[in-house]
Amino acid sequence: MNILILTGAGISAESGIGTFRDAGGLWEQYPIEQVATPEGFAADPELVHSFYNARRANAAVAAPNAAHKALAKLEREHAGDVLIVTQNVDDLHERGGSQNILHMHGALNRAICAACNHRWPAPAEMYANDPCPSCNAPATRPDIVWFGEIPQGMDVIEAALQNADLFVSIGTSGTVYPAAGFVQSARAMGVQTLELNMETSSGVFKESRNGPATELVPVWVSEVLAGE
Ligand code: BV8
Q: Atom 80 (ligand 1): residue with closest C-alpha?
């Protein structure tokens, strides 16, 4: 059984990384337009860099939780394919032991040059006009997919949806597209759909289990592995 897993901010919440839309979430503190759009970056690059510098620092002191570790165990022990497509930009899946991961909204620990497309490991803090280590242009930015920009790896994701027997959505409110539309595509292709989330995001999932990821995910992984 090939499993495609979509994760969102909810899987990192119990590691101390704030979600976006829960009470007191990130988008309440920072208006999306100012810190997560190319226009916002063009208007005030220092504000956007300080937003991501703060999140980079927060992610650096966070630790992967039982949900991240359970998904790594699934990847190691499950007979079929396991791909994690994450909307998260932290590296807790990697630090939890998973390897087959696609960051469709980019990654805090990566930087990119808007002039030459060179990518490199982001420093802890980035500032406007930092020169590109490859072409020296002052055109560097966080390697993050902002609103209005094309998510990364869409071709890989489409293929994985075609190939999946089970689509599992963990810790996402299902408000951001195209990620929020994956469950519809899965159902249209006859793929089983399961949601593990604090609340039921939509009635579209065949099954939705509600609770914290650190409880739901290890239980679900044990069920899958027990059936092997
Ligand atoms: C694109 C940057 C074209 C990185 C992010 C009008 C209608 C429909 C769509 C649009 C529209 N206008 C514009 C659009 C498109 C737009 C969009 O969807 N807007 C929304 C707001 C309406 N999308 C885009 O612009 C995307 N690009 O469409 O390009 C295209 C499309 C297809 C193919 C080619 C081209 C680009 C979107 C990427 C934007 N960048 N982030 C960063 O700063 O982090 S999005 C941002 O939201 C994060 O990536 C985040 O991951 C993502 C989704 O949020 P969630 O992860 O779901 O987090 P949230 O707080 O919302 O929910 C947390 C959930 O966890 C909750 O359900 C909660 O109950 C649960 N939870 C909490 N604690 C726990 C828990 N669950 C379990 N355990 C817990 N302990």
A: 212
